[in-house]
Write a structure and sequence with these properties.
The N terminus is likely disordered. A hairpin with a 6-residue loop joins strand 9 and strand 10. The chain has one domain: Rossmann fold (3-Layer(aba) Sandwich). Helix 4 runs parallel beside helix 5. The protein is an alpha/beta fold. The protein binds zinc ion (ZN).
Length: 202
């Protein structure tokens, strides 16, 4: 792949873009695939370049830290927890580079907010699950994928067989779509090894 067009390998430098428009980058994949780590990596590069960076995550996600974005491998950046996507607009300040983690918890309102932010010149980097535990599209990430200029799909490693893990295996039988948790409730699996254990399976 051409290095210059791939944000994961080069990080986008706004000065290369003569127009005033912003854009949307989506980092998606299953749990344990390094989405937050990749988001932190891109945001750090922007900070090093002295760009104004703001980082948001939904309040539902307090697994690790209320005011930091923390990846499973322990890299972290200060972040703001918000109750809704609309709150991002209110707390944006002067930021021109925005990181939004756990996009799947924001609902479809996030699509319109990202569109507005990109239209006003922001670089918007969104990370989130593209599928739920049943492998159904987990909105609003699929809608954001359709809207985004740059897409990165991260893969984990299947804990059963070692193949590329594109799916999140829920280890318990609850059928609610959202159950917040980490290692003890979920693991990464490949297409072949993934199974749905939910009670309401039909
Ligand atoms: Zn497997």
């Amino acid at each position: 792949m051409n290095e210059a067009t791939h944000p994961a390998s080069t990080d986008i430098d706004r000065s290369h873009y003569p127009h005033r428009s912003g854009w949307i980058e989506v980092i998606c994949g299953p749990m344990f695939s390094g989405k937050t780590e990749e988001l932190i990596r891109r945001l750090r590069r922007a900070q090093i370049a002295k760009q104004e960076v703001a980082i948001f995550k939904p309040q539902i996600d307090d697994r690790f830290s209320a005011d930091h974005l923390v990846s499973h491998s322990d890299s972290s950046l200060p972040s703001t927890s918000v109750r809704s996507a609309r709150e991002i607009m209110e707390k944006l300040g002067n930021a021109t580079v925005l990181g939004i983690d756990e996009a799947q918890f924001f609902g479809n309102e996030l699509v319109e907010i990202c569109r507005k932010l990109a239209a006003q010149g922001c670089r918007v980097i969104v990370a989130g699950l593209d599928q739920d535990y049943r492998c159904d599209p987990f909105e609003p990430v699929p809608q954001l994928l359709a809207e985004a200029e740059y897409i990165t799909k991260t893969l984990a490693i299947c804990v059963k067989c070692g193949a590329p893990g594109s799916r999140t295996q829920r280890l318990s039988t609850e059928s609610e779509r959202v159950i917040v948790g980490a290692q003890d409730r979920y693991e990464a699996r490949c297409r072949y090894c993934h199974e749905i254990l939910a009670d309401d399976q039909s």
